[in-house]
Each structure stands twice: as C-alpha cells, then as structure tokens.
Design the sequence.
C-alpha cells in the first residue's frame, strides 16, 4: 500500500507547496470565478426571478471556466524544467505521481471554487437548501473537471497555442458534468428529487477517477517521447 | 499451414498501400457518382410527396444520410486510432487523420440541412433538441481532433495524441448523447419530436439507403485520396516515393 500512498502524498505535497509559493495563480482562478459570475447579472438585468432561474447554470459555467484557467499549468512548468521526465523515469509508478498532480490541481483550483460558490449563490437569492445542493454538486463535479482536463493538458503539452486548443478539446467533454451538476440544483429549485442527478454525477466522478490518471499518463508518455 | 488468401499485413505498409489506394479510387469514384445519381433521382422524382410536409421533406435524403455518416466516420476513426495505438502502425494513424475532415464535413452538412429543414417545418432555424445538440457537439469533437493534429509538428506524436483524443471522445459520445437527451426532456424545450416519424413509404427508405451508400463511397474515395497525400508528405524522403510514386 505504501508503494501507492507515499509517492502519491509526496506528489500532492510538492504541488501544493509550489502553489503556495505562487499565490497569484491560486487567487487569479478564484477571482476569475467571482468576477464572471458577478458580470452576468450586469448583462441580463437584476430581475431576481430570472437570476434565481439561471443561477445554477451561471455558477457551474463559472466554475468550469475557472478550473480550466490553470489547467495548462498542471504539467507545463514541470515539462519545461525537465521534472516531468524525471518523474516518468523514476522507479515510482508514473500514474500515481500524475494522480497526485491531478489531486493537487483539484485542491488548488476546485476546492476554493466549491467553498466560494455558496457565497455567490446568495447573490442569486438561492435558498439554503439549494445552496447545499449546489455545494455538493460542485464537490462531486469539480474532480471530474480536473480529471478530464488533465487529459487535455497532457495532450496539448508543449503544443503551439496550447491554451486555446485545450479549451476546444476539453469543453465538449465537460458537457455531461455541466448538465448533471447544474441539473441537480435546477431540480432542487423546481422541488424535484436530486438523487438521479447526484448519482450520475458520482458515477462520472468514479469513472473519470478510474480512467483519468491512466489516460493522462499515457498521453504524457507520448508527449515525452 | 495454409497460406492466407490475402495477406492483410502486406497493405499495412504505406509503400504497398499507396498503389493499392490508387487502384481503388476510380472504382469508389464511379460508385459514388452512380449511387448519388440513382439516390438523387429517387429522392427528387420517384419518392412521393409527403402528406404533411409537402416537397420540403426531400432534404431528408441528404440530411439523414449525412447524419449517419458523421457518426459512423467517428467510430471508424476511433477504430483506426485504436489500431494506431495498439499496433503502433503508421498507416492507421494516417487513416484516422484522413477521415476527420470528411466526418466534420458531414456533421456540418447534417446541421446545415437540419436547420434549413427546420425553418419551414418548425418555424425555427435551431431548436435545442437532443439530437441537434449532440450532433453539434460531435462537430466540436471533430474540430478538436483536427485542431490538435494540426497544432503538433511531429507527425507520429500528432497521430498518437489524436488517437487518444478520438478514443476518449468515442467513449464520451454515448454519455453526452444520453445526458443531452435527459437535459432536453427535463427542460421541455422543443415541442417538436423528431423521433415519432410517420410510417415511411418504401421508396423513401430506398432513397435514403442509396444516398447513404453514395455518401459511404464518397467518404472512402475522399479518405483514400487524402491518405495518399499524407503518405506522400510523410514519406517524401523515402526511396520508394522517389522511385515509384513521383514518376
């Protein structure tokens, strides 16, 4: 077991330490989320009925774009200074190290968004219950975003125009998570059961947690060839 | 042990496939022209006028066949991608990238004919119907594949990266389709259902099938033409190209 947990923990710790040393990146993603969500009412008008109706979609799309923002930096700096190659060559399983990096990305980009979401939900006049549903759906959904995004980040590693390309590749694959995540909150607003949405979102999370690191490692090995 | 009738591995090399493709192209071109002529003749002159939709429904013959092809080509692309990754075969990767533009074209054609058909029938260019939406996403997936491949300079890496993307995509297509369908039924967006098609006249079905076959032959022709270009481009420095292909 320690063959899994020790390198995993160290990989997560290393990336968290790096993130802590570059606080601007952490804050930029969160600030981006806050500002995008706050700009939309300015675009569509202050009608509370309308805002409550579109809040789940806005918050989810904001979260989606915010996690996408730092996605390219998941592997790019390590690729540039050769660390990634050392990881691939190390006796530890590369997949475990990559899983650690993805987890660290979620902790840095996903968790702050999850924690900030209820506060922004208040601006859209969501009920306390809906705020819980929103937080829960984001808690289940943001790992999916990090996991699918990591595949795109690995595929576009060191490629011309990688950032824009990454969003073109990844955003269509985010659609199921967006539908079920925002759908859960909408179902709750409409007084329906959220069980189905949450179950499917959890299924997506399990599926991507199983395949994500593996496919990402495969893509990284191609990029490092 | 008996020798196999055809040695399939022989044609997995670009050098042997290049002349084979050259021999196949005229046949498939002829098949395309013949089938398209018959198909269009049936769809314009033989098939009866629809009781509800009048003459406007005739776009179905292009629309349905294009939609089928766009989905089918994505599966074929994923098949060649799997071949590319598992056997590390160069030609498989070339086939996948040769198919992508045709697939994207059919996806676009399907969307275009769909909206042209939708305007007179539903009164809207676009409705957020589950099928339309997932077709649009399929189009995006094609664009992503093409963009990724063209952004990578090293052809071997481009092939493999594209292969991973199309395999990830092909797993996601059903998930996306069902999620979009469920999203659509929850929203009650479109009031028009495309699933309840009226019982079709026999000739209409024939027209559609023949048009689908015509598009099929067209796709093969285009893929072969394109794969020949890709082979030439990548094998330019090889001896056999200088000797045989460029005389």
Sequence:
């Amino acid at each position: 077991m320690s063959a899994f947990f020790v390198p995993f923990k160290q990989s997560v710790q290393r990336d968290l330490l790096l993130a802590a040393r570059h606080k601007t990146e952490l804050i930029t993603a969160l600030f981006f989320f806050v500002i995008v969500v706050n700009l939309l009412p300015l675009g569509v008008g202050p009608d509370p009925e309308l805002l409550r109706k579109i809040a789940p979609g806005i918050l989810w799309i904001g979260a989606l774009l915010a996690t996408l923002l730092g996605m390219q930096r998941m592997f790019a700096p390590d690729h540039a200074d050769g660390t990634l190659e050392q990881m691939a060559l190390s006796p530890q399983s590369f997949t475990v190290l990559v899983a650690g990096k993805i987890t660290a990305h979620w902790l840095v980009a996903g968790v702050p968004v999850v924690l900030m979401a209820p506060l922004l939900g208040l601006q859209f006049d969501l009920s306390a219950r809906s705020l819980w549903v929103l937080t829960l759906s984001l808690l289940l959904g943001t790992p999916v975003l990090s996991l699918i995004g990591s595949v795109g980040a690995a595929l576009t590693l060191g490629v011309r125009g990688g950032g824009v390309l990454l969003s073109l590749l990844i955003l269509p694959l985010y659609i199921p998570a967006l539908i079920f995540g925002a759908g859960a909150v909408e179902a709750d607003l409409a007084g329906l059961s959220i069980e189905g949405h949450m179950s499917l979102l959890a299924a997506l999370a399990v599926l991507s947690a199983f395949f994500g690191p593996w496919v990402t490692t495969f893509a990284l090995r191609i990029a490092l060839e | 042990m008996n020798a196999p009738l055809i040695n399939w591995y022989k044609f997995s090399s670009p050098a042997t496939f290049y002349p084979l493709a050259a021999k196949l192209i005229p046949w498939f071109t002829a098949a395309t022209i013949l089938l398209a002529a018959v198909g269009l003749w049936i769809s314009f002159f033989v098939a009866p006028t629809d009781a509800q939709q009048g003459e406007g429904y005739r776009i179905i013959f292009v629309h349905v066949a294009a939609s089928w092809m766009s989905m089918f080509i994505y599966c074929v692309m994923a098949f060649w991608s799997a071949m590319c990754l598992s056997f590390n075969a160069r030609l498989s990767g070339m086939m996948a990238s040769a198919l992508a533009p045709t697939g994207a074209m059919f996806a676009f054609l399907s969307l275009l004919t769909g909206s042209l058909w939708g305007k007179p029938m539903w009164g809207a260019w676009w409705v957020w119907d589950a099928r339309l939406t997932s077709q649009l996403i399929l189009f995006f997936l094609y664009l992503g594949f093409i963009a990724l491949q063209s952004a990578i300079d090293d052809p071997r890496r481009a092939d493999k990266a594209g292969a991973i993307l199309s395999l990830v995509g092909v797993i996601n297509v059903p998930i996306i389709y069902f999620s979009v369908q469920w999203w659509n039924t929850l929203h009650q967006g479109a009031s028009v259902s495309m699933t309840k098609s009226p019982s079709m006249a026999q000739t209409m079905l024939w027209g559609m099938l023949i048009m689908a076959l015509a598009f099929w032959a067209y796709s093969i022709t285009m893929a072969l033409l394109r794969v020949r270009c890709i082979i030439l481009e990548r094998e330019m420095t090889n001896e056999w190209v200088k000797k045989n292909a460029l005389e």
Observations:
- Chain A touches chain B at residues 151, 155-156, 159-162, 165, 168-169, 171-173, 175-176, 179-180, 183, 186-187, 200, 204, 215, 218-219, 222-223, 225 (CB under 8 Å).
